[in-house]
């Protein structure tokens, strides 16, 4: 029997057997307790979390591109400030998620290398272009809306660092959804051509948003095990249905239609029926054949290369501080920092 060191999910602090550690993990998951970084966990659970969290983190930072495209062309200072805040939030979401993934022993560099090499995915939704200003509104309403529907249950995910990161992310996503909705409402109630622009954006983003929930349940490779481990709480199809039911009345308030002739209320089910999703398109985009796959990944690689000096500077700064801390006390360090800062200000 292999001996492993137990963490908090296993109450013992001394060495325990592999079987005991596994039983403690199962019991913690069953009791809805959180699994923490130092707890024993099955390798497949760790790998599954790294895959999901990496894909999620990559989606956050790649998702900055389609909207950042409109920052310089926002129609007013107010809209520009909102959009800049939103795009910055997405960078922050990436940061929380890469940090949460690091608690599983995978560095951010490693994950970014895999993204740049095409070995890890990001959400296929970001491979569609933002053709008009109304796309920013449609993304906020539909894409951030779908993200919230997916992510609120992740706040109760069994892995502690992921669940805690999601709490803050969801608060910010809800602001993103609201600003998109409000922007579309303004366009829809504006001039006929503004209304038309809003409708056109919704027509283009509706189906890709439904695809964000992933393949149908019977084709979803990772779903069943993820639900047993309580990483996922609801199936892809359940979440997709919930999203459709939320969007239909919102579209009515917006004065816009959803581009699906089969969309109608089903009295018996108490939910909306909706038309068939074009999964061939979804698979093509996943394979790299979407309208913007090339552009998104090459822009990401370029941004990473151009940011090399920032990483070098941050590393040098951290090393300088580590050396200082090794030499002196924290109070002396702080005093030295202030003195250095004042001197720089004075000579600037
Ligand atoms: Fe986000
Ligand atoms: Fe967002």
Please give the structural blueprint.
Layout lengths: L2 E3 L9 E3 H13 L12 H20 L1 H5 L8 H26 L5 H9 L17 H18 L8 H29 L3 H20 L11 H6 L7 H19 L9 E3 L4 E3 L5 H11 L3 H14 L1 H20 L2 H18 L1
Antiparallel strand pairs: 1-2, 3-4
Helix pairs in contact: 2-4, 4-7, 6-7, 6-8, 6-10
The structure holds fe (ii) ion (FE2) (2 copies).
One fe (ii) ion (FE2) binds next to helix 4 and helix 7.
Radius of gyration: 23 Å
The CATH class, by name, is: Mainly Alpha
β-strand percent reads: under 5%
- Sketch the topology as an H/E string, one letter per element: EEHHHHHHHHHHEEHHHH
Question: So what's the overall shape?
Answer: globular
Largest sheet composition: 2 strands, antiparallel
Q: Unreliable segments (pLDDT under 50, ≥5 consecutive)?
A: 1-8
What is the CATH superfamily classification? Ferritin, core subunit, four-helix bundle
Please tally the helical runs, counting DSSP H or I stretches of 4 or more residues: 14
Mean pLDDT: 91
In order across it, which strands form the biggest sheet? 1-2
How would you describe the overall organization of this protein?
With 348 residues, this protein is mainly α. It has helices at residues 18-30, 43-62, 64-68, 77-102, 108-116, 134-151, 160-188, 192-211, 223-228, 236-254, 279-289, 293-306, 308-327, 330-347; strands spanning 3-5, 15-17, 264-266, 271-273. The chain contains 14 helices and four strands. The strands form two sheets. The chain has a two-stranded antiparallel ribbon. A two-stranded antiparallel ribbon has the order 3-4. Helix 2 (43-62) packs antiparallel against helix 4 (77-102), helix 6 runs antiparallel to helix 7 (160-188) and helix 6 (134-151) runs parallel beside helix 8. Residues 1-8 have low confidence and may be disordered. One fe (ii) ion (FE2) binds next to helix 6 and helix 7. Residues 338-348 have a biased composition (Basic and acidic residues). Residues 323-337 have a biased composition (Low complexity).
